[in-house]
Amino acid sequence: MINENCIIESSYGKDISNAMDYHSLPRFRWYGYKEGFSPNLVEEAIQKVGIEKNDYILDPFNGNGTVTLTASINNIKSVGIEVNPFVAFMSQTKLENFSSKDFSDNMDEVLNSAYKSKPSLLCSFSTFSEKTGKDKWLFNSDVLNSFEGGWQALKKFPEAKKKIFQLSLIGAAMDNCNAVKDGKCLKYRNNWQNRGFDRDSFIFTLKERLKNNKEDLEKTFIPQNATIINNDARQAIKSVIPKYKLCITSPPYLNSFDYTDIYRPELFLGKFIHTAEELRQLRFNTIRSHVEVALPKPKQSNFGEIYHSIHQKIKDSENNWSKQIPIMIQSYFEDMQQVLFDLLIKAKNKGELWLIVANSVYVGTEIPVDLILAEIGTQVGWKLKRIEVLRYIYRRKTKYCGNINKVRESLIVFRRL
Ligand SMILES: C[S@@+](CC[C@H](N)C(=O)[O-])C[C@H]1O[C@@H](n2cnc3c(N)ncnc32)[C@H](O)[C@@H]1O
Q1: What band does 13 get if pLDDT is binned at 50, 70 and 90?
Q2: Chain centroid to CA 328: how far?
Q3: pLDDT tens digits for 110-126?
Q4: Phi and psi for 58 in degrees, rounded to 5?
Q5: For residue 115, how far is its CA from the centre of ligand 1 (angstroms)?
């Protein structure tokens, strides 16, 4: 029977689940991503599971690409699935090889073009610049125009040579954005009106980023490319062939965090989407862990005893911040049940699934997502090996979290027998 007594404290060092310390590593630093886990965890899994020459590693929620980049550096085949086209592009770009001499030759062309600037269509779109007449805007138009100048210079570059420059241009624009990522949303910087981001500050940060790219290209060669699939994992796992030996992944947490919203500026800057409707459509393809759009209603609820008692409590409460919360919770576990089943079918005999998840809190009640997923996993046919606490995540106090100020982030290890 699965319950709190099954959970063990971590045998790993501090913060192995958190990528914060790895932002300075070559290639990892090309684009920051708060939600990532550590490459050490991937290396640990590779060691424990024992990967042979023809085996590959799968991450169906590839995010930043910690799994695909670590596997590629270690010359191991891997496949990453990621629904957000900007995020998929980011993880793909970190794998690119490019001679550093070629890179330097092209670098000046991009910088000169950014210096000259070109009119950006985003200047008249939504909250992107002061030109839209809104009282808050994400970018000063000089930043957007300089970005566009650099972007246009890439038109004549072969496809393979564009990516690293594109990622650095997007990164430099975000360094000069009037808002920063803060938990679930973009938050305007203190005193943002007086910071005066402009063409010169944009070029300054772009130069820094290109310098880092060049240094890393000189230092690191990627011996094994990974396959990055930009698609919904609920569709794409079924199409992955052949069977994998190790899947290591952290799905979206049950925290109403909408990654498409957080990466909205990047999605538009990189021209991955062009309209609000395209953004809305993208949300329908994400795991149902947020209430941003009216997602299809769930049909299943057979997720075990722990789920039932907790879900009833949350349904009965008057204090949910959105009426959609109980439906979102049910939908999340329905999606994860399907994912866990599809992953079992695609695992080799004795293949392992390492799942990193955090618990969440609604109406002052902690939802033990780790225990519920462990129950669902065993229901669909996985053998549970262990549940291990990786760390505790401290929470900001809000009126919805009662007295709970920290939640577990756990590693669940399943094996296919
Ligand atoms: C917690 S993050 C993964 C972080 C990753 N482990 C790393 O180290 O960078 C979850 C990712 O799942 C993606 N995602 C959400 N719904 C998805 C879906 N239906 N299919 C594939 N990816 C999805 C999100 O865009 C996000 O990048």
Answers
A1: low
A2: 20
A3: 999 999 999 999 999 99
A4: -120, 140
A5: 35
Using the mean position of ligand 1's atoms as its centre, give its distance from the Cα of residue 414 in Å. Answer: 20
Among 40, 83, 262, 273, the mutation site with the greatest number of ligand 1 atoms within 8 A of its Cβ is: 83
CA pair distance 278, 120, nearest whole angstrom: 19
337-375 pLDDT, tens digit per residue, is: 999 999 999 999 999 999 999 999 988 889 999 999 999
Which among 147, 189, 175, 185 is positioned nearest to 263, based on CA atoms? 185
Q: How far apart are CA 22 and CA 408, in angstroms?
A: 21
HEC assignment per residue over 203-257: HHHHHHHHHHHHHHHHHCCCCCCCEEEECCHHHHHHHCCCCEEEEEECCCCCCCC
List C-alpha distances in Å: 288 to 175, 296, 333. Answer: 30, 9, 9
- Whole-number Å distance, alpha carbon 252 to ligand 1 midpoint, is 6
Q: What is the pLDDT of residue 255?
A: 86
Q: Measuring from each residue's beta carbon to the nearest atom of ligand 1, which residues come in under 6 Å? A: 19, 33, 35-37, 61, 63-64, 66, 81-84, 87, 232-234, 250, 252, 259, 285-287
How many contiguous H segments (helices) and E segments (strands) does the chain have? Answer: 14, 12
User: Which sequence spans correspond to the domains of the chain?
Assistant: 1-11+301-334+348-417, 100-219
